[in-house]
Amino acid sequence: MPATTGVEAKARTMALALRDAGHEAYLVGGCVRDFLLGRAPGDYDIATSARPEEIAAVFGRGETVGAHFGVMLVDGVEVATFRSDYDYRDGRRPGEVRFETDPREDALRRDFTVNALFLDSETGEILDFVGGREDLERGLIRAVGDPRARFAEDHLRMLRAVRFAARLGFELDAATREAIVELAPRIGVISAERVRDEIERILTEGGARRGFELLDETGLLGEVLPEAAALKGVAQPPEFHPEGDVWTHVMMMLGAMREPTASLALGVLLHDIGKPPTFRVTDRIRFDGHAELGARMARAILERLRFPGAEVDQVESLVLHHMRFRDTPNMRPSTLKRFLRMPRFEEHLELHRLDCVASHGRLGNYEFVRARLAEIPEEELKPPRLVTGDDLIAMGRRPGPDFRTILDEVETAQLEGAIATREEALLFVETRFGAAP
Ligand code: ATP
Ligand code: MG
């Protein structure tokens, strides 16, 4: 049993407060599932017979969580009246909810049996109306009720099923899986933002490889990320990739990730996305320009899924630069330093490590870069500027596009160790670019 956290204690106290006021109240959903599995819950939910105004009378107003029909957020705990959902028309959300007095009704509207358990925090008793405990023991994600109907009501549940199966290492129950296969083409109705959140969570919450294999097997991948589905069956040169095709390579990398950030995981997923369209057989299989094309594809994919701009920039950079580690032993010092100081370089390095361990297994360039990173002090990677545009103006030069070139060359000379002081830099500008006109 995991240690009692502050929020958990809070949630239990809140359930008791509702009971003291004469209502039924239980911890419910993911927190009960995780508690029974001995995992640390992400958040806590309380289900209660109390109506929203009665909840407010016990806790004060709280924050009403907008779209969820009077669900109240009190100190980080979501408190919701027992309810049933009706009138799903658009495959996204109910048109109507009805408040209920019976927790069974509330269980029946939940997505999966393992998410529909209620915990009586006073007695420790579990209320299970849907066979959730048995599924928890057998490791099954099973829709509550008729899976076809439940996924038809709310298509997002299909991605949630994959996410929970991947994260918990569970199987999809056969009928649940069949229903997803049948309804997968409808996932496009769900907003890009909600699909994005699920993809990100599948990539980062554990079991990413399994998650993407399930997305593939159910046909969801072809709907939400057809470019990734296209990696399947794309052969690679065996001398560099003894593991097999591009898809296998990417799956192995997903499987080898260690608590990745979202951008790293997306970088892993997309680093070879440019391979299918650049595949060519000349002397051997080649993918000329796949990093450059892949970077553009990654940007287009992530913008389509409405990832934040900073995330898109970083993933694009990870994809664009992933082949450059090969060249690091031969880079001039200035080129190497500029490479090593890219934003969140540790993600570039980790992507490269994963790329190697999931293919030829040689870590020479990885070790080379790590050694350089350890020995080059930060101030040598990003030394203070020796001259500025104002200095160039003071020298009598007219501001223009060549300022960038001059300042870059000054920095290159500095990174090469050829100049180190302002005087040397000014002299460098005069000898290299001539006296000002
Ligand atoms: P996590 O650990 O990811 O937070 P969770 O099970 O707590 O998992 P939430 O999204 O926090 O999932 O939702 C809380 C509970 O609300 C779920 O356990 C489930 O009972 C119910 N629920 C959430 N989304 C849906 C949905 N789309 N359809 C039906 N029930 C849902
Ligand atoms: Mg939750």
Description:
The chain is an alpha+beta fold. It has 24 helices and 13 strands. The chain has helices spanning 6-20, 30-37, 52-59, 103-108, 132-138, 147-153, 156-168, 174-183, 192-204, 208-218, 220-224, 226-229, 246-256, 262-270, 275-278, 290-304, 309-321, 333-340, 345-357, 364-375, 378-381, 389-394, 402-415, 422-433, and strands at residues 25-28, 44-48, 63-65, 71-74, 77-81, 83-88, 94-99, 118-119, 126-127, 140-141, 171-172, 280-281, 285-286. The protein has a 7-stranded mixed beta sheet with strand order 3-4-5-2-1-8-9. A two-stranded antiparallel sheet has the order 6-7. A two-stranded parallel sheet has the order 10-11. Helix 14 packs across helix 17 (309-321) and helix 14 (262-270) packs across helix 19 (345-357). The chain is elongated, with a radius of gyration of 28 Å. The relative contact order is 0.05. The mean pLDDT is 94. Magnesium ion binds next to loops.
Which short descriptors sum up this protein?
about 425 residues, alpha+beta, binds adenosine-5'-triphosphate, 24 helices, 13 strands, elongated
- Using the alpha-carbon principal axes, give the shape: elongated
Number of strands: 13
Helix content: 40-55%
Percentage of β-strand residues = 5-15%
Helix segment count?
Answer: 24
Strand line-up in the sheet with most strands: 3-4-5-2-1-8-9
Q: How would you summarize this macromolecular structure in one to three sentences?
A:
The chain is an alpha+beta fold and 437 residues long. Helices cover 52% and strands 10% of the residues. α7 (156-168) runs antiparallel to α10 (208-218), α13 (246-256) packs antiparallel against α14 and α16 runs antiparallel to α17.
